[in-house]
Amino acid sequence: MASLVYFRKVAESIDSVEYIFGFDTNDPPRRLLMDTKSRRSLPVDGEIDYAFLKASRKINALYEEVSQWPDHGMSVG
């Protein structure tokens, strides 16, 4: 069974990009911070789990394609 993880950019600065993410757009979202220089991400709540990893990897993959942080998207897996 495939799972979807949605994400949306909510803030951006020179040093970081902040995203909300989660399995369902109706659930309370979680947040992750992406370091724009190292392209490493951290969950704001400290919980590194499947949803966080899926969102983080998809955000990085989209950035790799167009050299721009995506505004929104989803990861199917």
Describe the structure in your own words.
With 77 residues, the protein is an alpha+beta fold. The chain has one helix at 50-66, and strands at residues 4-12, 16-22, 30-35, 41-43, 72-76. It has one domain. The protein has 1 helix and 5 strands. It has a 5-stranded antiparallel sheet. 22% of the residues are buried.
What are the defining features of this structure?
alpha+beta, five-stranded antiparallel sheet, 5 strands, 22% helix
Concise structural overview:
This protein is an alpha+beta fold. It has one domain (4-76).
Please mark out the parts with pLDDT under 50 across 5 or more consecutive residues, or reply none: none
Which structural category fits the helices and strands?
Answer: alpha+beta
Give the percentage of residues in beta strands: 35-45%
Q: Using DSSP, what is the number of strands?
A: 5
Cα-atom Rg, whole angstroms? 11 Å
Instruction: Please give the share of residues in helix.
Output: 10-25%
The pLDDT mean sits at 94
Strand order of the largest sheet: 4-3-2-1-5
Major sheet description: 5 strands, antiparallel
